[in-house]
Amino acid sequence: GYGSNPVLFKPALTTAGFCLTFEDALSHFVATDGKDPGFAIKGWREVRCENTGVNFHGGTAMAMGKAFFTTPEGKQVALEYTFGYFLDPEGEVRINLHHISAPSISA
């Protein structure tokens, strides 16, 4: 959604906090400003997502679930996500909410 609507982006495994601009999001993924090591360039061997729930309403959708990332060494990192989607004026699916966090710890 950057360029047409704000994206509410809260990444995990970072010290940067919220990424409300395209430049902040780009830096989170590919380390353009030195604040982050670059989540997308960590050399993940595999990424798998499992939706727990999906809601549709008009031209919007929300999904939440777990994402599993496999490191180059074969270790699996599990994160939980919530995404919001909308259709832009051309009918393309865009993201307007991206929240990733470490899983809750059960007592």
Describe what this molecule looks like in 3D.
The chain has one helix at residues 22-30, and strands at residues 8-10, 46-57, 60-70, 76-87, 93-101. With 107 residues, it is mainly beta. It has a five-stranded mixed sheet, with no helix packed on it. Strand 4 and strand 5 form a beta hairpin. The longest helix is centred in the first third of the chain and has 9 residues, at 22-30. The radius of gyration is 15 Å and the shape is globular. The model has no long low-confidence stretch (mean pLDDT 86).
Radius of gyration: 15 Å
Q: Runs with pLDDT <50, length 5+?
A: none
The overall pLDDT, averaged over residues, is 86
Task: From the 3D structure, determine the CATH topology of one domain.
Answer: Nuclear Transport Factor 2, Chain: A
> What is the total tally of β strands?
5
| Secondary-structure element series | EHEEEE
Main beta-sheet annotation: 5 strands, mixed
- Binned, the helix content reads under 10%
Q: Give the spatial strand order of the biggest sheet.
A: 1-5-4-3-2
Secondary-structure class: mainly beta
CATH class of one domain: Alpha Beta
Which CATH architecture of one domain would you pick? Answer: Roll
Distance between the termini: 38 Å
Strand content range: 35-45%
Count of separate DSSP helical elements: 1
Shape: globular
